[in-house]
Amino acid sequence: QVQLVQSGAEVKKPGASVKVSCEASGYTFINYYMHWVRQAPGQGPEWMGKINPSGGGTSYAQKFQDRVTMTRDTSTSIVYMELSSLRSEDTAVYYCAREVAGLFFDFWGQGTLVTVSS
Amino acid sequence: DIQMTQSPSSLSASVGDRVTITCRASQSISTYLNWYQQKSGKAPKLLIYAASSLQSGVPSRFSGSGSGTDFTLTISSLQPEDFATYYCQQSDSAPGTFGQGTQVEIK
Known about the structure:
The complex is a heterodimer. By secondary structure, chain A is mainly β.
């Protein structure tokens, strides 16, 4: 069965960076784009970007263009999302989500809470 | 970016009620519209894709309709497990924006 398992909660100080991982299993890793979506407390989901696990190509939302990096390790079927220069507004739950045919997200990770606080 | 506007932002309903949630896009998105259900502390769950296609395993009381800019999610007979927040999301063009959500509460 398809599973996306994310790394645990993080607490960071403003200005620091955070790297969240998402381990995929139950399907052929390189066949599906992976996206990152975040959700601030009480808010709707916000798309951050995507990575093609096959070639490593990425596309980021303009809002995060200069602060986010998405990478993958095909040997372990893990994708990573690193967000730098953290500020309090980055406090949110971060999800990875598998894309189907450019249309929708059929499986999601359990979410990783990132708290940015001095 | 395409803006997605849901209405209402919240509603109260009873078990057995028929519930309708609407989603409007700021420009035409054909049928590139998905619906997700989210329960507290959990990841969103896909219900409907391509405006009207039911995701595998989702009960048939959920249905979706619409095209262009106006879309509807209908729950034909609300069940206790359906109390949650519902989000629409467009997949016509990046970024795949979400609506602000509709919280369905128990009356």
